[in-house]
Design brief:
Strand content: 25-35%
Shape: globular
Number of strands: 10
Largest sheet: 5 strands, antiparallel
Helix content: 25-40%
Distance between the termini: 33 Å
């Protein structure tokens, strides 16, 4: 799992959250003070849902279904230029990728929401359960896609080094939208979580928004 912060007007924030048997990466709109929205809170709430990792990931869609609508409609009506940035990125509004073990097998479950030009918000889900090397890329990824197409044997290279290189490609290509530090977390076949690069994660552990009293 790899995360980076959006450059420009945003501040570095941890986008990889580690909880027992439930680590998740976030992409898209992380938070908003008004109307209040916290992607980390929703991901954290999903992590405590009973069941395996897939049940937790699926629960995220139910937990976030109503909360994502308020900021989406607000941005469409009051911040149309910002709203259009999501449309230009394929409509990706928020994504949470849960990584860990399911029935003893390393897996990742991507769950999120896309927005349309008419303001509708639609759930999306992808299960990454292949035995070979595979990946899920949210956010800026055009140069990542080009690199993988030009290097079809990418899966035979060191996974961590490749992940770092892919993020660096997007940082170089979109310095106004993507920036360091990069955070990298691995989850092995026994479910052990290990920081390779913590980046902005410690001591920062959440978004800039705070839950209202």
């Amino acid at each position: 799992m790899v995360g980076q912060h959006y450059a420009g007007t945003t501040q570095p924030a941890c986008k990889l959250i580690v909880k027992p048997d439930c680590a998740f990466a976030m992409a898209g709109l992380l938070g908003k003070p008004q109307p209040y929205f916290s992607l980390q809170d929703l991901g954290g709430d999903a992590c405590v849902v009973p069941g395996g990792l897939k049940e937790k990931a699926d629960a995220f869609l139910n937990l976030a279904s109503d909360p994502v609508n308020s900021p989406a409609q607000y941005l469409r009506e009051n911040e149309p230029k910002f709203y259009d940035t999501f449309n230009r990125n394929g409509g990706e509004f928020v994504y949470v990728v849960f990584a860990g073990l399911q029935d003893g097998v390393p897996v990742a479950y991507a769950r999120g929401f896309k927005i349309a030009s008419d303001g509708s918000v639609n759930p999306v889900s992808y299960d990454i359960t292949a035995t070979g090397a595979t990946g899920f890329f949210a956010g800026f990824n055009d140069h990542i896609a080009a690199y993988l197409k030009a290097h079809p044997n990418w899966s035979h290279k060191d996974t961590v080094a490749t992940a770092r290189k892919l993020i660096e490609l997007e940082i170089a290509a979109h310095p106004d939208g993507v920036g360091p530090p990069v955070s990298i977390l691995t989850v092995d076949r026994k479910g052990k979580q290990k920081w390779v690069e913590a980046g902005a994660c410690p001591p920062i552990t959440g978004t800039a928004t705070k839950r209202p009293d």
